[in-house]
Amino acid sequence: MKVSGYQLFWMVSISSMIVFSYLPIHLAAEQSLQDCWISILLGTMIMLGATWITLRVCMQNKDKTFVQFINDLIGTVLGKVVVTMYFLLWFMQMSFIAKGTVEFQNLVMLHNTPMLFILLCLLFLVLYAVYKGGITAISRCAEIIGPFFVFMLYVQLFLNPQDMDATRILPVYADSGLLRILSGTLHSFNYMVDPSIILMLFFFAENKRSATRGIFWGTAVAMLWGVVSTLVLLFVTGPNIAAELVVPIYSLTKFVSILNFIQNIDAFFIPLWLFGAFIKLSIYLFILSYGLSEWTGYRNWKLIACLTTFIWLAYTIYSTHNIQISNTLKNRYLIGLCYPMVYIVFPLFLWMIGLIRQRRKPSSVN
Amino acid sequence: MIRFVLLTCVSLLLVMSASGCTDFIEPNQLAFVLGSAIDHAEDGTIEMSYQIVIPSLQGGPSKGESSGDSAPFFVMSAKGKDVFEATQKIQLKMSRRLLTSHRVLIAISEEFFNKNDASKLFDKLSRDPANNLRDIIIMIKGGSAKEFLMIKHPLEQLSSIAAGKELDINGLKGFSSRELIIDSLSRGIRPLMPIIQIEDKKLSGKKTSPIAALSGFAVLNDRLKVKGLLDNNEGSAAIWMQGKGTFQGVTMPWKNGQGTLSFRLTRLERKLRSAPGNDPGHIVLMVKAQAYLLENTTPLDMSEVKNMLEVQKHINEQIQKDLQLTMDKIRQWGPDVFGIGEFLHRQYPYWWKSQKDDWDEKFKTIDVTVKANVRLRSTGTSGAPLE
């Protein structure tokens, strides 16, 4: 199973944009109102940095997957514990994206269709892609869906120029101040991009150098989109409405009215978001089951994928019945501790260990 | 291979039809709502009315007219504790599902604003995905909003479409519900709302029929209560100073009562700046426009440069005087429909922090000077008046 740098570009940009269009803008705007674009901008910088560090770590361990090289770097026991944290993170992301997608469909379009049915269709499709073709199938899908998805999401931002008023982001800084801007960043940056998926995906890259470029540019394209869409949202709705919009990009499509004729174009975007969610979920399912198979030593990762899907299905259904569990996204420990750990601190730590070992090697040879 | 293809086809069919079992709605199962009306009802409830299109009676305007009494729409209404409850009561009496996504207008009666907290309506507009925030919100005076929906328009098929077009064709943009919500949530600007009045007019022959027409603007305060009403002339002055207008017409008397001059004003702009000395208490509001002379009943020969300059000077003085009058009138009422608070908020953000509470009262003490900069672009296609 090999993936090209071009395919990685699309996979990373789709999977970042799909979450970016949903969570971070709302979380940032709640904190810093009209300055949330600064929060988002800072967040994208942090995430680009995190991606860069993660890529450094991957380049140091080109020929191994995450599960293998972490054992080399920090020992088997500690390595397994750390990897478990990542597994939990991926599983949590999977279930909340699946749940978010399905509940959104129920809210907006399919009022009476049972939620279970939509969920089953979605999970079946994801499992099918992963089971039949693994990462190859996913990357090919991403290659086809990517250009449409990214292009349409960018175009959508410029469909209501008549409603935009750039003065709505003024005054800059004075109202919220540094503290609230930073708190906006802290609340939102975790959901902009998930650099931890690269740790697993990089192993499958055909050409490591072009893969690095692809991943970095994929992240950059998604981050740019995030900043521009935050600005556009503020231009169109002003800070007070923006802070309350739970699905801001969807609401933005509803404002579009071209010559009083082309309206209600959200129906075109909902399938696109479904495509995006499909790519994101398949990537997660693949890396989770592949990682688990390496972690346990059980070679048949396809079987693990099936089992994971069952647990995933059960957990998602359970979490929809338990409001407490399903709304933990703003949990203080999650935001302040867990995400920064897995996205920034661990990769940084691994990179440093890698650097030290590289230094040591030539000296030990001499 | 054949088995695989068969299996795929069957499962595809199953999947595609499955959501149809529960959520398939054909266009002939939908009732298109083009206008909503909200009225005050006793005992703390509100009355919702929906103007629903009858598709079989839709056609060209002439066709609608010839069919006599049958209008191409009907109005359903019900009372409820909130919008949803009232809507649900209407839905129960309908054979088709109400579709509000294409609504163009929400009419709210003046009484409703005065007796209810109208900002409670905003939640429904932004929470329920079946709403779009593109529809225009207007206030109905001299009758209930429900009555307005029932009125037939001589030119358009529905009164709500007519009112929307009326605003649009007169260059009055920016009265959508989105902008109303933005204005009422910001602390430094208050909403200005178009008023539609229902009057009996003799349109043709002996018959008098009620007609709904734009008759000014309402100035609302921060709790969306009506603080004052502006007539059409004052209204267009306020719109210009608010920065929302795009074009308008103006007629002014010439000196010594020697006839009048009428202009078309285009490219309306306004700029705010604080007076020299950077004092937030003194604001200069600068309005800009380009004027085209279209009627002249004065003895002036407009082909002479001297007269042109004099007319240009006269327009500026006159407009400055008129706008200042409107400005002072609204300033006495209190609500800052011009967004001067918002301007100060952006210009002096730290000063604003201590001033933003109770802005309606403080706005009364702000000194706003209106300055006009209107350029005479053209004097029309004739020089001296033809006499």
UniProtKB/TrEMBL annotation, chain A:
Pfam families: Spore_permease
Taxonomy, superkingdom: Bacteria
Keywords from the UniProt entry: Germination, Membrane, Transmembrane, Transmembrane helix, Transport
Transmembrane segments: 7-25, 37-57, 69-92, 112-130, 142-159, 179-203, 215-236, 268-291, 303-321, 333-356
Entry's Gene Ontology BP terms: spore germination
Keyword ATP-binding: no
Coiled-coil stretches: none
Subcellular locations according to the entry: Membrane
Descriptive protein name: Endospore germination permease
Family recorded in the similarity comment: Belongs to the amino acid-polyamine-organocation (APC) superfamily. Spore germination protein (SGP) (TC 2.A.3.9) family.
Hydrolase as UniProt keyword: no
InterPro entries: Spore_GerAB (IPR004761)
Organism: Paenibacillus arenilitoris
From TrEMBL, chain B:
Protein name: Ger(X)C family spore germination protein
Keywords: Germination, Lipoprotein, Membrane, Palmitate, Signal
Gene3D superfamilies found in the cross-reference section: Nutrient germinant receptor protein C, domain 1, Nutrient germinant receptor protein C, domain 3
GO CC aspect terms: membrane
Position of the signal peptide: 1-20
Major localisation: membrane
Spore germination protein N-terminal domain location: 25-197
Subcellular location: Membrane
Domain Spore germination GerAC-like C-terminal: 215-380
Family: Belongs to the GerABKC lipoprotein family.
